[in-house]
Amino acid sequence: MSSPASSPSGPPGVTDVPREQRLILWIAILASFVSFLDGTVVNVALPAIVDELGGGITTQQWTVDAYLITLGAFILVAGNVSDTYGRIRVIRWGLIAFGVTSVAIALAPTAGFLIGARLLQGVAGALLVPSSLALITSNFSGRAQAKAIGTWTGLTSGAMVAGPIIGGLFVDLASWRLVFLINVLPIAVTLWLLMRLEQRDVRHPDASVDYLGALLCVVGLGGTVFGLIEQPNLGWADAMVWVPGTVGVLALAGFLGRQATARAPMLPLSLFRIRNFGWGNLATWLIYGALALNGFVIAVYLQEQAGQTATAAGIAILPITIIMILGSSKVGALAGRFGPRIFMTVGPLIMAAGALMMLWVGEDYSYWTQLLPGVVVFGIGLTLMVSPLTAAILGAVDPARAGITSATNNAISRIAGLVAVASIGAIVGGTLDLNGFHRAMVATAALMAAGGIVAWVGIRNPAPARD
Fold first, then answer.
1. In angstroms, rounded to a whole number, what is the distance separating the alpha carbons of residues 358 and 187?
2. How many domains, in total, are found in the chain?
3. Of the residues 218, 294, 333, 347, which has the maximum number of CB atoms within 10 A of its CB?
């Protein structure tokens, strides 16, 4: 493998690999960073968005879920697009489109315009993550792959959790609109690194794009989520709830039927017969739904009920970022040595304990004694779980299908978050007060515990990897 004359130093934990591989890893990290950061940085901006554009909690839910609807639906298409047209080319397309839609959101004059732009941004984000992970799985193998995925997980997940801090500073010191321009610098840097990459693009000769499946998926997710979000306001009997909800459920059924019969499905259902892939994605659904619920509720509650600034709400979860950055690469290497099962079991159970510790939050709010202990425990569990889960799922399938494999897992995690956020009204009882916060933490703990149990029951450690 050829190497450029000079390239960036390797990310922490991966410094003993060829320069071309380090360059690839940096591209994968930064491209995923763009999508992950935007998915979470918005949480601390939600109160400010509603103050200016109106719409209450419904606008807040749609600001988050509009992005997740198209991200979750098109990330499956993006997996096929990545295999069909080449991973490097698709990453480049996604970066450019993400930059354009970010500017549109920053200039949004109304809530409706913002939500529409977020829908388009989700499509751009969908092009980034599957291609990024596919680059890693096709350029690293054995323990080096596990360690690279651990590094990718630590830095991208750390960025995902750090987003609220960066966003909070922009909201408090300038404007919520600048939150959506944070990605301009990483987009520019990643495009520059792509220009320096000497590797030829990789395509799968038998891959194709299932556009009908994508349409059914978008309609299914959109209709179902619309019903879940509007139900607390209108009730199940209202036609504005049950009609789109019914259409959504039927479209999702049609999507599954399409995938079962299509010659080249965007979601090969046969993959779920592979033990670690099927059980790993079930654990992903439970755990990432809990993560989305937890992140949304903490960011909004601390500002609207506990009287914290946007920056303080972001800093509240800074310990998670630090723990993940310090530990994910090491955990990835350990999972490559000992197998993912124990990490995928213990990690979610520790996160469940951390969520229950957040029940200490009371009317007289104190970060240091009420929230911080639970945040630290939550961060330890998250660090133990994320990279082993990713490695277990990607390692279960032939590397030639890396694009669709990573796309499926990412789609499931995003759709889980989408459904969790859409269900917040029902979970918290319609109002995100202290009682609602406590109900959300109990729900988070229950989902996390279920994810850990699923991992223990279903995941099996693969044969020891060879370097």
1. 36
2. 2
3. 347
Closest C-alpha among 459, 398, 414 to residue 137: 398
The full length of the chain comes to 467
Q: Please report the sign of the dihedral spanned by the C-alpha atoms of residue 424, residue 41, residue 287, residue 227.
A: positive
**pLDDT given at position 326:** 86
What parts of the chain have a pLDDT lower than 50?
Answer: 1-8, 467
pLDDT at 86: 79
Q: Which amino acid is at 322?
A: I
Sign of the torsion angle spanned by Cα atoms 156, 157, 162, 166:
positive
Nearest one of 49, 356, 300, 55 to 175, comparing CA atoms: 49
Both 246 and 270 in one domain: the answer is no
pLDDT score of 372: 97
DSSP 110-135: SHHHHHHHHHHHHHHHHTTHHHHHHH
d(C-alpha 54, C-alpha 168), whole Å: 19
Q: Do the domain assignments include residue 466?
A: no
CA dihedral over 436, 442, 448, 453, signed as positive or negative: negative
Residue 258, both tokens: 């399409």
* Residue span of the structural domain in which 123 resides: 19-200+266-458
Query: In terms of domains, do 190 and 244 share one?
Result: no
27, 132: one domain = yes
Number of Cα atoms under 13 Å in the Cβ half of residue 220: 20
pLDDT of residue 344: 97
Report which DSSP code applies to 43. G
For residues 399 and 403, give the distance between their C-alpha atoms in angstroms, rounded to a whole number.
9
Tokens of 223: 């209709």
Distance CA 453, CA 438 (A): 23
79 near 92, Cβ under 8 Å?
no
Distance CA 396, CA 252 (A): 26
